[in-house]
Amino acid sequence: MRYLVCIKQTPDTAELPKVKPEEAASGELSIQQVVNPWDEHAIEAALQMAENFGGLASVISVGGEKAIEALRSALAMGCKDATLVENADADAWGVAALLAGAVNHMGDVNVVVTGQMTVDGNSGMVPVAVARKLDWPVLTGVAKVLNVSEDAVEVERVVGQARHTVKVKPPVVLSVIKEIGEPRYPTFINIRKAARVKIPVLSADDLGVTVPPPVVHLSNFRKPPARDAHVQLFDGPADEAAGALIDALLAEKVL
Amino acid sequence: MKFLVFIETDSGAVVPSSWEALGKALSLSDDVEAVVIGENVGAVAEEAGSRGAKTVYLVEDASRSLFDLDLYVADVKAALETSAADAFLASHTGNGRDLAAAIGVDLGAGVIADALELWVDGDRLAGTRPVYSGNILVDVTVDGSPQIATLRPRAASPAEATGANANVVTLSPAAAESRVVVEKVERAETGEVSLTDASIIVSGGRGVAKDPELGFKLIRELADVLGAAVGASRAAVDAGFIEYKHQVGQTGKVVRPDLYIACGISGAVQHLAGMGSSKVIVAINKDPEAPIFSVANYGIVGDLFEIVPALKKAAEAKLSK
Predict the structure, then answer these.
(1) Does the beta-carbon distance from A221 to B136 stay under 8 Å?
(2) Which end of chain A is more exposed for a tag (fewer CB within 10 A), N or C?
(3) CATH number of B3-170
(4) Per residue in B40-81, pLDDT tens?
C-alpha cells in the first residue's frame, strides 16, 4: 500500500494575529511558517497506517520553494519520500487538480491522506475536490483507522454529532481530524536523513495538468473589527460576584 | 436571483442550521427554493415550504437515510437542473461543506465557503468570509454556475414559519452508486447540544487540573442549568480531561455563541481563533493577567471550583423568576 499525505506550509498559529491584510492579499508573509497543524495529524495517520497495515507513506505539497521546509519536517517524522508541486496561482480547484495529477503521475497510490482544513485558507474544500478530480470516494472527519487492506479501508468518522463506522474499497481519500493521534516528534536519525533526501519539484506541465483558471475572487482583505471589550470585573465573595454576573448577563439578554 | 437551499437531514430529522441558510436566502431574494434529501423527510419538506421556500424538491429513498456524498451530489445536481437556480446555498456543516465542494469542483464553479455574510450585487452573489483563522476578513465572489456558498452556522437568523403551504415536488433518486458502506452509527446522547449550534457555551481549560473530573462535572452542571453546550480548551483535551469533540479553537471547532463562559482558560490565540467572535465573553480565571480577560466583556478573578457552583446557584435562583 502507498499512502500519500498532502500538506501545506502555513503560518505558525501563534503568529496568525500578526498577519497583515496586505500580506494576506499578496500571500507573501513575513511570519514564521510551519506544517499546517491539521496536516501534522494527516502525516501521523499515514505513518500509523504504514506501520499497522504495511506499506509506505509519501508526502506532497503544492507551494513555493519554501514549502520544501514543510516537506522536510514530514520526512523527519518518518515519511519515505517527498514531492513539491509548483503552485501556478491555483485556487482550491487548481490545487486539487495538481494533487490529483500528481497521484495519477505516481500511479501506485492507494490512499490519499489530508488534514481537515488549513489554518490560512480555512475553506476545507480541497480534500473533497481531490477525490472528485480522481473520481475516488472520500471520507472526511476520520477519527480512527480500523483496517486497511487491498479490498477495504475501514474507519470511524465523525459526522455531525454522530460517529459512523464505515467501509470503502480503495483507492480512497481520507481527511482526518485530531483524534487520529498526536503527531510524533521527528527522530535525530530521520532529521539527518530528511536533510539529504532529494525532493523533486514538478510543474503542472510535468504532471500533464492544465490548471483551471481561478473561480474564486478575493478582495478587500481587512482585519476584523476589534472586540469592543473592556472587561467589567465582579469581585467580593463568590456568591455575590456570581449573582452580579448573572444579573449583567440577564441585562445583556444572553441568558 | 434564484436560490436553491440545501436543507440537511440526519435520519429523518432536520439539521437546525439549515434554516439559517434558508433564512439568509430569503433575506436576499423572493425566489427561493429548497431541496430535501433523506428517508421519511416529507415533514421536513413541508416545513421548508412553511418557512418560505416557494418550491421544495424532495428526494426520498432508504439509500438516502444518511448523508452519502455520491448519492446526494447526484440528487442535488438533478434538483439544480430542474430548478435552474442561479445560486446554491448550504450551511457550512461537515456534510454541507463536502456537498458544496463536490458540486463546485464537478461543475467548475467556485464556492464562497464558510461565509459570515452574503449579499447580492446585480447578478452576482458575494460574501465575506474569515481567513487566517478569523484574523483576516475577505470579500469573495465566484465564477461558474450555479454560484455556490456555504454559510457558517449561527451567522444568520433562521427562516421563520409563515404558515404558507409547501409546493413539494418529488424527484426520483438520481442514478448513482454509493461507494461507502455504513456499518455502525453511534449517536450522541439525546439532548446534547452541538457546539456549533449552541447559543451558550460553558468551557473548561487547564484551570480544572487540580481535580479535572470535578471541574468538568461543575461545568456540565452549570451548562445544564443554562441549556448550554460544554466546550474545552486544547490544553484540557490534550491532558485527557475531556473528549476531543468538545475542543474549541484552532484544531477544534469554531463557534459563535451569544454567550461564551471560559472557566480556567488562559486564552491562547489558538483558543481565541475558535471563539473570538462570540457575542459576549465571560472569563473566570485565578490569574488576573490571563489574556482571556483582554477579550472578555465580564470577568471574575477567582477559583473556578468556587465560582462555577456559585454561578449555577445564582442562575437557578434568577432564571426561575
Answers:
(1) yes
(2) N
(3) 3.40.50.620
(4) 999 999 999 999 999 999 999 999 999 999 999 999 999 999
Cα A216 to Cα A92: distance, rounded to the nearest angstrom: 8
Q: How far is A167 from chain B (nearest CA, A)?
A: 5
Of residues A168, A218, A231, nearest to B297 (C-beta): A231
Please provide residue A174's backbone torsions phi and psi, each rounded to the nearest 5 degrees. -115, 125
Q: Which three cell numbers stand for residue B82?
A: 430542474
Contacts A21 to B, Cβ<8 Å: 136
Provide, as residue numbers in chain B, all residues whose Cβ is less than 8 Å from the Cβ of A248: 298
Distance from CA of B268 to the nearest CA of A (A): 8
Q: Would you state the pLDDT for residue B188?
A: 81
Chain A residues near residue B185 by CB distance under 8 angstroms:
162-165
User: Does residue A234 have a pLDDT over 80?
Assistant: yes
The complex's ipTM works out to: 0.97
Closest Cα to residue A123, out of B137, B254, B97? B97
- CATH, domain A2-207, list 3.40.50.1010, 3.40.50.720, 3.40.50.620, 3.50.50.60: 3.40.50.620
Q: Which residue of chain A has the CA closest to B146?
A: A215
Count of CA atoms in the C-beta half-sphere (13 A) of A7? 38
Q: What CATH fold (topology level) applies to the domain B195-319? A: Rossmann fold (3.40.50)
Give A134 to chain B, closest Cα distance, Å.
Answer: 11
Cell 472528485, located at residue: A132
Looking at residue B101, its pLDDT comes to: 98
Return the bridge partners of B147, or none: B87
Mean pLDDT of A207-235: 94
